[in-house]
Specification:
The structure holds two protein chains of two kinds.
Chain A (H helix, E strand, L loop, with lengths): L1 H10 L1 H36 L6 E4 L12 E2 H8 L10 E7 L13 E5 L5 H4 L4 E3 L10 E4 L1 H7 L6 E4 L2 E9 L13 E5 H7 L5 E2 L1 E4 L7 H11 L4 E3 L1 H44 L1 H9 L4 H37 L11 H28 L2 H6 L2
Chain B lengths: L2 E14 L2 E14 L3 E5 L6 H8 L7 E6 L2 E2 L5 H11 E4 L11 H11 L6 H14 L15 H13 L5 E5 L7 H16 L3 E5 L10 E6 L2 E7 L13
Parallel strand pairs in B: 3-8, 3-9, 6-7, 7-8
Antiparallel strand pairs in B: 1-2, 1-4, 4-5, 9-10
Classes of the chains: A alpha+beta, B alpha/beta.
Amino acid sequence: MLDVAFKDFKAKKSRAAMCIVGVMACVLLIGVVNIVMYEMESGLKGDLGTVNGKLYFEQNGTAYPPVRSIMNEDIGNEVMNRSEVDAEKSTKALFAPLQGDSVPNGGNPRMVVGLTPGKERAFIGNVEVDGKSSLVGEGENAVIMGSEAAKDFNVTLGDTFTVNDNEFEVVGIMEKVGSGWPLTIDNSLIMSLPYAQSISDRPDFISTVIIEPNAEYSVQTVENNLQDAYPKYVTYSEKDAQKTIDENLKGVMVFMNMVIAMIFAVSMVLIMNVMMMSVKEKTKEIGTMRAIGTRKRSIMSLIIYESLILSSIGGIIGILLIPPTYNLLGMFMGATSFNFTIPTTVLVQVALIVLVIGTFSGLLPAYLANRISPIEALRYE
Amino acid sequence: MKTLVNGIELWKTYDLGGVQVNALRGLNITVDKGEFVSIMGPSGSGKSTLMNMIGCLDSPTEGDLFIDGKKTSDMSESELTKIRSEKIGFIFQTFNLLPALTVRDNVEFPLRNINKKLSKSSRRKVVEECLKMVGLGHRMDHLPGKLSGGERQRVAIARALVNRPKFILADEPTGNLDSEATENIMELLHHVNREGTTVIMVTHDKETTKNTRILRIRDGVIESNRMRTDSIPIPYPVTG
């Protein structure tokens, strides 16, 4: 019956074209909204990826970045000396907003991240750095800049800049990690811990200890041991990072999903309407088919196939138009780089939505077509 | 001769807003294999109701109807659908071809409904044979909209024959045709009948009842039943 459905579809070109354009617009919207959500989530995951497999030892509640946490450096030294902690890969760290820095257009605040020189990887993980990725042997005011921070201060490798009478020398610039929603790494200025303490007026204080557990200890064991040893302190782990992602995106996701649900419903109604019209127009044909012995199941397939053809064509065109539309929107919002690939997850989601729209919007018309009495249908003019 | 259609005491009662209307009132009918039967009668006499029943589109309220020896009065809808696809060929007054399909696809359509697994090439061969028999071998790839009324009805006849049915049920097959096309279609139907297919036809046109057994219906019963013998029609010229 698929071939018959296709011929029927070809015979009603203008109606089919209108329906396809409608579905295409809906798929396009759903796809773009999905990509926005995907980018937001992957942005956050990129920023919080630094937590993977590590623990942030904090005070004053769990949070990332741990700007509200403050503890004496001695506690940090104590933690660093514990047997569960891989001292080579762990570091004391200070997180503080860059003082005297005015953030344009309500953007994310630039963050001072003070680390023990040589332990930068404890924070930046495998992020690629243009220039120096270590502060060892560099001047006390050397900084490794996050991609967004470097862009905001308009600096390149070797430049110096001053904020609040503090001078910084750029020795490295990190690649962009959080795609689209930069929180910490992209907005950070990594510098030596003593310099960070000095410019933040927090001598002898740190925010956290970034802990890489020793090979023989699991993250969970280290977390439990630290909780037992320091009941007033807390640890921030991968689980908490996921919670942070969920909390940050909760409201936005609910809103976006509502938008998707509405577009989905509009799309369904659109195809259903066209299919209803098609069934009405085809009443006599359906009656003839039934009279000459076509089974109800075949009539149902015919209607559902037609609906699937309409949604698939609209869907495919819509999917093809998602990247240019997304990039065009990004261009209006000031983006300078373009990406013409659709993330596989988004592609699968949109394809599934198209399939569901096609099948379900054909169901009611197919059911109604099946209820047509062949005797009545043959009389229908 | 083997009986193909046997209706015994057929009643059909419709409930029209609380009023019981009897379309058939204990009608008896028998059609033997190989016959050409014309059913005539005024509007409202019960012709269409009888045709729908013989065509397994409707069931009697009372009485028994046997098609090719099988009692259809108690059959389920899917069983009736199977009988329609395998044993009956339908021809309609308004041709009822599927407009989006070519002549070839229209004729092939009933073959989709039967359970016999025919290969595509065998299906094509059967379709082409049928279309050549009705003289439309040269119009196979045309859409119905491009054909004349007579040609469309010939496509409908080919469609009705393609499943090699036990009988053809024709509902005023010449009702929408001019006299020349009417003559051609009647010649074709007689040709099909001579080849062995039983034909049951509803008609208002006396001219089309030559050499057929005429059943006259009035008020839901058969009023008369007689054989009309005229000159033997000219054999149908097979072309295409």
